[in-house]
Design a protein that fits this description.
Blueprint: H1 3-13, E1 28-32, E2 35-38, E3 43-46, H2 49-52, H3 61-72, H4 85-98, E4 103-108, H5 111-126, E5 130-134, H6 143-147, E6 163-167, H7 185-200, E7 207-210, H8 226-237, E8 240-244, E9 269-272, E10 283-288, H9 289-292, H10 307-322, H11 325-344, E11 350-356, E12 359-364, H12 374-386, E13 389-390, E14 392-394, E15 400-403, H13 411-433
Parallel strand pairs: 3-13, 5-6, 5-7, 7-8, 8-9
Antiparallel strand pairs: 1-2, 2-3, 4-10, 9-10, 11-12, 12-15, 14-15
Helix pairs in contact: 3-10, 4-10, 7-8, 11-13, 12-13
EC number: 2.6.1.44
Organism: Micromonospora gifhornensis
Protein name: alanine--glyoxylate transaminase
């Protein structure tokens, strides 16, 4: 079977709005460590990890063996109507690590479902369907989560069960806040929040749901401390703070275990997904018991927190902590961000090299302007693949190269990937200016 045959079959039975990466899409057939191999036998260093999901890498013995032990019992599923030891053990660990006092945990299958569950809890707790969201955000593909996604390219429907009011994002290159000195942006963001509450709501808002670093939005974020400043205003009105940690959680930013910790504040609810399952479907919400209990009817997830996925989750979390992968993310991420800034940060087509830990972005613009250059980003994206490196892309205008390697990335692999990135950016930038 060739990839061309598989591509034709894909297009014949799957919807066209499901995107495929690359002009010549690849089928990944095997993986080990931080490398994957396609159906043609080409091996790549993976700097995107299944969209920041294969957090520990590929074919990790501890995770594989934990899943095999559970499979050997013959129990793949029982439903949450029965006690699940793996689920309880993982919930205990996540509650302890969340930093939220008297925490409860509810497991789902995806980040979308986790954010949907958080909205269910917050709106019931506050008895209000009014929600604050942030421009350039992404929170999922369900009806309600699309309604609080502030990126038109990912909002397939503007029909919305919620009443949403929008705050300015932490975008440093564009928008109203970008015109201000860095030191003034938090005060301006607080002023924006107060004005939005006064003009666009009736006051009894349920929550603000925000990403510490906007993932699909291109890894942009506001100044550290922004969430704390927002929360002072939210607390005046009893409004809950929900931190969407689907991409920022588990030590990926290097400096903290959760993205919210950069802001010196504790959220009422925290949503998680992606990396905790290392490819197994696992996500959820952790939050204050009082808020988590604000569901006035029976509710459960058939597959959320099933024995297989939570067996994997326990192994992932234990491996993460035992090997101090947060520190590794800080160390290897610094190699990448410092190297990129030194090698290509001065190019007039590179607007910004940004990020924290192993959550990095490079934004491309037309030389001498802030005009997004999606074509150049696409060229670099393809050139990286040709050089043996898989990366992601995104941003509001499709002009950002996104990197979220497994947290097990070695220093040598970081330097190897850096060399491919630098060559791809320089060569594409040179071609773009060639008459």
């Amino acid at each position: 079977m060739t990839s061309d045959d598989l591509l034709a079959r894909h297009r014949a039975v799957l919807p066209s709005w499901m995107p495929l990466y690359y002009a010549d899409p690849i089928e990944v057939v095997s993986g080990e460590g931080r490398r994957v191999t396609d159906a043609q036998g080409r091996t790549y260093l993976d700097f995107f990890g299944g969209v920041l999901t294969n957090m520990i890498g590929y074919d990790i013995a501890e995770i594989r063996e934990a899943v095999q032990r559970q499979l050997a019992t013959g129990i793949v599923h029982t439903s949450t109507l029965y006690l699940i030891r793996q689920q309880v053990e993982l919930a205990e660990k996540i509650a302890r690590l969340s930093g939220i006092p008297d925490a409860r945990v509810f497991f789902t299958n995806s980040g979308t479902e986790a954010n949907e569950a958080a909205l269910l809890m917050a709106t019931n707790y506050r008895r209000s369907h009014q929600v604050l969201a942030v421009r350039n955000s992404y929170h999922g593909r369900s009806y309600a989560t699309m309604g609080i996604t502030g990126n038109r390219g990912w909002s397939a429907s503007q029909l919305n069960p919620l009443q949403v009011a929008w705050l300015h994002s932490g975008e440093r290159l564009r928008g109203l806040l970008s015109r201000l000195p860095e030191a003034d942006r938090i005060d301006a963001a607080v002023e924006d929040l107060r004005e939005v509450l006064a003009t666009q709501t009736s006051g009894d808002v349920a929550c603000l749901l925000a990403e510490p670093i906007q993932g699909v939005g291109g890894f942009v974020h506001g100044p550290d401390g922004l969430f704390a400043a927002w929360k002072k205003v939210l607390d005046e009105h009893g409004i809950l703070l929900v931190s969407d940690e689907v991409q920022t959680g588990w030590g990926r930013t290097g400096e903290h275990f959760w993205g919210y910790q950069a802001h010196g504040v504790t959220p009422d609810l925290l949503t998680f997904a992606k990396g905790i399952g290392n490819g197994f479907a696992l996500a959820g919400v952790v939050g204050r018991a009082e808020v988590m209990e604000a569901v006035p009817a029976i509710s459960f997830s058939t597959f959320g927190g099933n024995p297989i996925s939570t067996a994997a989750g326990n192994a992932v979390l234990d491996y993460l902590l035992d090997h101090d992968l947060q520190a590794n993310a800080a160390r290897t991420g610094a190699i990448l961000v410092d190297g990129l800034r030194a090698a290509v940060g001065g190019l007039d087509c590179v607007a910004e090299v940004r990020g924290k830990g192993l959550m990095l972005g490079v934004e491309f613009v037309r030389p001498g302007t802030a005009e997004p250059d999606a074509a150049l980003a696409a060229g670099v994206f393809e050139a990286c693949r040709a050089g043996g490196l898989l990366v992601g892309k995104g941003g509001l205008y499709g002009n950002v190269l996104r990197m979220g390697p497994p947290l097990t990335l070695t220093e040598d692999e970081a330097r190897e990937g850096l060399a491919i990135l630098v060559e791809a950016i320089r060569s594409c930038a040179a071609e773009a200016v060639t008459p």
